[in-house]
Amino acid sequence: MARNPERRTALLDAAIQVLADEGARGLTFRAVDARAGAPTGTSSNYFRDRDQVLSEAADRIFVRLTPAPDVIDAALLPAPSRALVVELMRQLAQRLAAERACYLGLFELRLEAVRRPELRTQLTKVLRTDLDENIRLHLASGMPGDADSVRLLYFALTGLLFDHFTVPGLHGDRDLDDLIETVVTRIVPEL
Fold first, then answer.
1. CB 88 within 8 A of CB 134
2. Above 90 in pLDDT, residue 107?
3. Residues in domain HTH tetR-type (predicted)?
């Protein structure tokens, strides 16, 4: 297997873009090579099979979506409040919009995981780690609500953002920021 880490990352980023644009069924070594602008056969030098590409793409998505620790620290500087939770959820939506391919690629991976038990195991681990870290941060920072509040925000915002990215007209003229505020206000209690 080839060992150029920058090339490997570029191939994974290309795989994520293929997932977002063409779906999991369109993810082939040839499609990844073409999207990365690499010679045909390059991906097969870095990944033993398609399952490895899917699994490593899941990991790469979370690397791209996870803010740097200093960004998290700065976001949590203001006093804990429901208004801060609203602002943090809006920032999350902005980050996901900036990484739209990652978010759509993640949904493609979720659908593919239904048919691939190994991918399901990997994706469950990655998603659980992310959710657990969000719960830990929420509770440690003194934000209003409990672990179930974070879970409910996760469920609601996952669906809201999925709608926003896939069928943006579904909610009519409702602004995404306003919808986020409504979700948070209904789930997170006042301090």
1. no
2. yes
3. 5-65
The pLDDT score that the predictor gives to residue 2 is 67
**What integer best gives the mean pLDDT of the chain?**
95
pTM value is 0.90
Taken in order of first residue, the domains within the chain and their CATH numbers are 57-187 (1.10.357.10)
The Cα–Cα gap between 179 and 24 comes to: 30
**What span, in angstroms and rounded, lies between the C-alpha atoms of 73 and 92?**
14
Q: Are 27 and 50 in contact (CB under 8 A)?
A: yes
DSSP H helices, the chain, are 5-22, 29-36, 42-46, 50-65, 69-75, 82-98, 100-113, 117-140, 147-166, 176-187
CA dihedral of 44, 49, 50, 51, whole degrees rounded to 10? -150
